């Protein structure tokens, strides 16, 4: 493994799905933004959409981890040890 590069789990479970999810957003931005006149307002709105997507993905990841832990605790409570 080369230092500084992500491991196999990070690559397969995080980077590739995130890239697949982000492709439609970039295609939409490419189609919607008029490239003959690119102004500051267009740059700011594009940046705000990227920040909003990042915030929503972080929200989903955090709440998914909480729900996952609750499901594990619930499943463990069903087992009789």
Order of helices and strands: HH
Output mean pLDDT.
80
Gyration radius, rounded: 19 Å
Give the helix proportion (percent range): over 70%
Q: How many E-type strands?
A: 0
What is the number of independent domains? 2
- Give the low-confidence spans: none
Helical stretch count?
Answer: 2
Helix/strand-derived category reads mainly alpha
So what's the overall shape? elongated
Task: Please describe the biggest sheet, giving its number of strands, its sense, and whether it closes into a barrel.
Answer: none
Distance between the termini: 41 Å
Strand content: under 5%
Ordered list of secondary-structure elements with their pairings:
Blueprint: H1 8-32, H2 40-78
Textual characterization of the structure:
By secondary structure, this protein is mostly helical. The protein has two domains: 1-32, no CATH class; 37-81. The chain is built from two helices and no strands. The protein is elongated and about 65 Å long. The model has no long low-confidence stretch (mean pLDDT 80).
Descriptors for this entry?
elongated; 2 domains; 81 residues; 2 helices; mainly alpha
Task: Sum this structure up briefly.
With 81 residues, this protein is mainly α. 79% of the residues lie in helices and 0% in strands. It is built from two helices and no strands.
């Amino acid at each position: 493994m080369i230092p500084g590069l992500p491991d196999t789990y990070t690559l397969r479970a995080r980077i590739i799905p995130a890239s697949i999810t982000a492709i439609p957003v970039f295609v939409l931005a490419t189609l919607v933004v008029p490239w003959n006149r690119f102004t500051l307002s267009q740059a700011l709105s594009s940046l705000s959409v990227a920040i909003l997507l990042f915030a929503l993905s972080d929200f989903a990841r955090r709440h998914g981890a909480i729900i996952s832990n609750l499901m594990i605790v619930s499943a463990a409570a069903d087992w009789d040890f």
